[in-house]
Amino acid sequence: MSDDRSASARWRELLEGRAIPPEIREAAPGSPYRHEPRRFAAPEQPPDTPSRRAGLALLGEGGTVLDVGCGAGAAALALLPTATHLTGTDHAEDMLAAFGAECDRRGVPHRTVHGAWPETAGEIGKADAVVCHHVGYNTAELAPFVAALDAAASRGVVVEMTAEHPTAWLDPLWERFHGLQRAPAATYHDALAVLHESGLDPQVQHWDRPPRDDTRAQAELACRRLCLAPDRVDEVAAAIAELPPRPGGMMTLSWSR
Ligand SMILES: C[S@@+](CC[C@H](N)C(=O)[O-])C[C@H]1O[C@@H](n2cnc3c(N)ncnc32)[C@H](O)[C@@H]1O
Q: Which of 59, 63, 73, 128 has the most C-beta neighbours closer than 10 Å?
């Protein structure tokens, strides 16, 4: 059967189809969506990844960087010392504060802009390279989001995302703990279709990243994402141990202007 929805509409439906049912969300002990700044801390020595290489290629001898959904700044800070100035923007104040504090600690010229992209784009203006890591699957309206990334870049854009929705691996646990069958998860193919529909033709690189969390941290995070009380973490850890290994597939989508 043919699918005549636009890629943007399909993306939106895929993301909205995975909203947590209100009765489960309301009974949750805390926000299932919360991100911990320390989990996203930038390593002192950034790993040599396709995203970092793509960012450095855009910068050449040097240039300014805008990091959208910067979190604690891992994407932008990985481009030092070639990057001469970093702007971080995020709608989470604690994340943005972590980015600012790390730039201060390293003595990096920087600016922070609090707010939601693309609404903040006008205030921020342009940078030589725009980087945006692990924000795409949070973004139902992906077309205006990526169009604004493109418009903000003088030289080019680097988007990093997991190959499939970062919570897809938890779907069997939603069934086990809540009896809930999850709607299909979006993948980078769906995101790429939106980029193509927006007239963008990125270079696509597929690579693997080792897991960010140890087993305990993974179980604690899963507990929160599943809207379960923290005292169920051992049960969740045991259930995770029965799952196939969590996929580490990572995508770098990059383009020059
Ligand atoms: C998964 S974290 C990734 C952080 C960082 N880019 C990294 O890779 O380490 C996603 C970040 O994007 C931010 N975010 C999500 N949607 C956003 C939006 N529309 N505008 C600004 N920030 C956003 C969140 O607050 C969070 O800090």
A: 73
